[in-house]
Each structure stands twice: as structure tokens, then as C-alpha cells.
Amino acid sequence: MDYSKIINEIYQEVKSETPQGKVASYIPELAHIDADKFGISLQTIEGKDFSVGHFDENFSIQSISKVFSLSMAFSLLGDKIWNRIGTEPSGTAFNSIMQLEYEKGKPRNPFINAGALVVADILISHLPNPKTDFIEFIRQISQNSNISYDLNIAQSEKQTGFRNTALINMMKSYKNIENNIETVLDFYFCQCSVTMTCRDLARSFLPFANTSSDFNFNNVRLTKSQIKRINALMITCGLYDESGEFTFRVGLPGKSGVGGGIAAINPNYYSVAVWSPLINEKGNSVYGMKALELLTTKTENSIC
Ligand code: DON
Fold it and tell me: 91-129 as b/e, with b when 16 or more CB fall inside 10 Å?
């Protein structure tokens, strides 16, 4: 497969379209990002790297971080994690509060904000140094020891994070949050603020695509069955109330973030990350979805 030719074609085709979507502004620090940025990085199971555009520029991974936090919590708790978080798509927005009340404070899945807040609470209860341990895990899985939090972005979200504050208070009232609310929110805003490049992200998703190697990074160990479950959650819930559309168009497990990134995997073939900050009303990158749709169409290879 000539991935180099294919991703270069995709880059040109997507760039020639009229831009749609808006840069996220509800986190003020994200509003400054140049809307024209666009990068793609694809890493094959054999270790080959194909990248184009702004693939080597750092951006805020936001909700893509929820795959890393879930991996850590699942490694720590095993199946007990599902006593506190569901495994069904929500069909509602990533920051919706409606469902949470009538489902008595148990989030539908670990990728909506409420679910990721419970995951953050679990990490705070179980890790000796949650923020250090989390970033060290990302550094190891991405093979880049320079990855870090962007504290300006974390601070900016803290100042405007009223919805996340509402969600966590609701869950605390149902006793699904063990720790102090401020401590959990502080960790959650930090995990979302991590900045990475498309290449870092693609590298860090490769172990989810590689079914023949052991998953063990900085003592985060997952069995093959656990990786299957994380990938299943990505395909059913990774793009929130657009997960059905993403699967319909792309046919791969993926995870998006409001910073405009989407990371996806094609088991036993490759991992891929795309970044374009223009997002649609569901919070997903417009160019990112288009690029991944073209990737599985041109390669005639997806899991669906
Ligand atoms: O909690 C939030 O609203 C953001 N830190 C993350 C949301 C997000 O990335 C949704 N993704 N598409």
C-alpha cells in the first residue's frame, strides 16, 4: 500500500475544500489557534512513518486524553471500573447533564465528560502522583519525553469550566465521586491540556492497533481483551453523538478532541492522527473526519 501517495492526495483534496466549522472558543485559550493548521501522521505496524502538513506542531489533545486516562484506570481496576461507568453510547453531547440525573450519576461511557471525570477520580484515588504518573505514561507510549501539560490552557478551562463543575457536583451527590471536587477538576483540566503533535499521537495509538505485542508502558498493563474493549468504546462512543456518523463514514475506532485532533486505528495495519482546529457543532474536526473517510475509502480497508 502506497500510504505516502495516499496521504499526500488526501491532504491536497481536503485542503482544496471550502473550510467549514469553527475553532473552539468556550475554552478561551483555544480560540487563538490558527484555523489553517492541518496535519496528518500515519504509523504502520511495521514501524513506517508517513506524515504531511503541520504534523510536527503541538496542539491541545483535549478529549483524546480520555483514551490514556481510561487505559490507566482500566489497568488499575480491571472490570470493577464498569460498576461506576457504563459502556453504551450516550447519543447526547459530550458535556450534556440531562442523562446523568435520570441515570443516577452513572455516566453512560468513559469518553463523555462525566465518564472521564469518574476516570480522573479513580486515578486520583489510586496513583501516588497522579499528574506525574499520567504524563509519564504518555511520554512512554508516544516515545517522546518532552510531552507536557499546557498550564495556560488548563487554567483557561478552569476559569470557564462551569459545565464540568455541574457534572461533577451531580455525580458527587450520587456518591460516584470519592475525592474532593476541586482536586478532580484540576487533574481533568490538566489531562485535557496535554499538547502533542500528530506524529506523537499516532505513535501513542499504535499499541492499540498492534494485537501481537504486549501493552506495558510505565506500569500501565492491558491485556488483549482489555485493548479490545477500549477499541470497542472508541468505535461506539469516541466521537460522542457523532460516533455513528464517524463509523458510517470512516469505519475505524477513533477519538476526537475539541482542539481539532482525531486519532484512529486500523487493527494490525496502522494508527493515524489528523489535526485541523475547525470543529463542527458536535465538537469534532471537520477536515479530520473528511481525511479519515478518504483514507479508508482510498485504501479500501476498514474494520466495517
Ligand atoms: O471538558 C471539556 O469540555 C474539554 N476539556 C474537552 C472536550 C472535548 O475535547 C470534546 N471533544 N470533542
Answer: eebbbbeebbeeeebbbbbbbbbbbbbbbbbbbbeebee
Pocket test for ligand 1, best of 29, 33, 59, 63 (most atoms within 8 A of CB): 63
Predicted confidence pLDDT, tens digits, the chain (304 residues): 999 999 999 999 999 988 899 999 999 999 999 999 999 999 999 999 999 999 999 999 999 999 999 999 999 999 999 999 999 999 999 999 999 999 999 999 999 999 999 999 999 999 999 999 999 999 999 999 999 999 999 999 999 999 999 999 999 999 999 999 999 999 999 999 999 999 999 999 999 999 888 999 999 999 999 999 999 999 999 999 999 999 999 999 999 999 999 999 999 999 999 999 999 999 999 999 999 999 999 999 999 9
The Å distance, Cα 238 to ligand 1 centre, comes to 12
Q: What CA–CA distance (Å, rounded) separates 253 from 249?
A: 12
If you measure from the C-alpha of residue 191 to the centroid of ligand 1, how many angstroms do you get, rounded to a whole number? Answer: 11
Which residues are near ligand 1 (CB < 6 Å)? 62-63, 94-95, 113, 157, 164, 192, 256-258, 283-284
Structural domains of the chain in order of their starting residue, each with its CATH number: 3-62+195-299 (3.40.710.10), 63-193 (3.40.710.10)
231-264 residues labelled b (16+ CB within 10 A) or e (exposed): bebbbbbbbbbbbeebbebbbbbbbbbbbbbbbb
Amino acid sitting at position 5 = K
What residues form DSSP beta bridges with 40? 52, 274
Residues sharing a CB contact under 8 Å with residue 93, sequence separation 6 or more, in sequence order: 240, 241, 282, 283
Predicted TM-score (pTM) of the model is: 0.98
